[in-house]
UniProtKB/TrEMBL annotation:
InterPro entries for this protein: NAD(P)-bd_dom_sf (IPR036291), ODC_Mu_crystall (IPR003462), ODC_N (IPR023401)
Superkingdom to which the source organism belongs: Bacteria
Gene Ontology BP, a term: carboxylic acid metabolic process
Protein name: Ornithine cyclodeaminase
Membership in a protein family: Belongs to the ornithine cyclodeaminase/mu-crystallin family.
One Gene Ontology term of the molecular function aspect: oxidoreductase activity
GO cellular component, one term: cytoplasm
One matching Pfam family: OCD_Mu_crystall
Source species: Celeribacter baekdonensis
């Protein structure tokens, strides 16, 4: 078998966000995945390899280098590829640009969480951050959640949020740059944070009853986006217990400080997909979803990508 090589441009404009979210949902109806991570090299030049076995789907390994200073050389900070092996004989079936897998996985992960936890009548989404992830979130949320009527974008650099909003000016959906974060949060039914914040940027005092909070940005042990009170008072869910509780500052720091315990996490995507009634319990509840990623999610999306070619 000759493995297929799949580039970013092969698929980036040819897939359905609804189908991508459905692939993640289907993946979580399968038995629990086996996952493992390896980190090699110094902090500013790391090789990260994430492996997974998903019963019925196969085996996957995503390896990327993360070089913090690459931007100064005009190069991407993260570069790599994902290997996909079929389950019956372990044959290599595809080599996929890691950027493609990560981009689809990250947004689909959050939107699946929102379909399971947000109020079905949610009309206003606020995205905090205006980078690549924010662009994918606009596309994914608007495709999968037809109740949305407005999408606000806030970033520290207002010009960046205004430029991203302008990209969607010709769409039917109202996408706008939000000038004030606290005011925009107070009006939103869903708040999705995709920043590089190391200290909380989202305060509980701003969040109204019934809001769904989608926390994406923090991916290291010293990073977080929500303040202690929001973490302590909201109904807390994660995409994967194995990749969040002991690894990401969003949960690890409040647990270490005694703000919450690990038992505060009410469920992950395996729980929510298999028992949807275990999620939101009423219209007033504030739900929090920590998007931490994981090799099993990469594998679910990688097999979806292979099926698109």
């Amino acid at each position: 078998m000759t493995p297929r090589t799949i580039s970013y441009d092969d698929v980036a404009s040819r897939f359905s966000w609804c189908d991508a979210v459905a692939a993640l949902r289907d993946g979580h109806t399968r038995p629990q995945a086996q996952i493992g991570d390896i980190f090699l090299g110094p902090a500013d030049g790391t090789l990260l390899s994430r492996g997974a076995y998903v019963p019925g789907l196969g085996y996957g390994l995503k390896s990327v280098t993360v070089f913090d200073k690459n931007a100064k050389a005009g190069l991407p900070t993260v570069q790599g590829a994902m290997l996909v092996f079929e389950p019956e004989h372990g044959q290599l079936v595809a080599i996929i640009d890691s950027k493609l897998v990560t981009e689809i996985k990250t947004a689909a992960d959050s939107v699946l969480g929102a379909t399971l936890l947000a109020r079905p009548d949610s009309q206003t989404l606020l995205i905090v951050g205006a980078g690549t992830v924010a662009r994918s979130l606009i596309k994914a949320y608007s495709a999968v959640m037809p109740s949305l009527r407005q999408i606000g974008i806030w970033s520290r650099r207002s010009a960046q949020s205004e430029a991203l909003a302008q990209e969607f000016a010709s769409e039917d959906l109202d996408v706008f740059a939000a000038p004030d974060l606290a005011t925009a949060v107070a009006k939103a039914d869903i708040v999705s944070t995709a920043t590089m914040a190391r200290d909380p940027i989202l305060k509980a005092d701003w969040v109204k009853e019934g809001t769904h909070v989608d926390l994406i940005g923090a991916f290291k042990a010293d990073m977080r986006e929500a303040d202690d009170r929001l973490i302590a008072t909201g109904s807390l869910f994660v995409d994967s217990r194995a990749t969040t509780i002991d690894h990401i500052g969003e949960l690890k720091i409040p647990i270490a400080n005694g703000v919450i315990t690990a038992d505060a996490v009410k469920g992950d995507l395996y729980d929510l997909v298999k028992a949807p009634n275990s999620g939101r319990q009423n219209e007033q509840e504030i739900t929090l979803f920590k998007n931490g990623g994981g090799a099993h999610l990469d594998m679910m999306i990688a097999t979806f990508i292979v099926d698109q070619i």
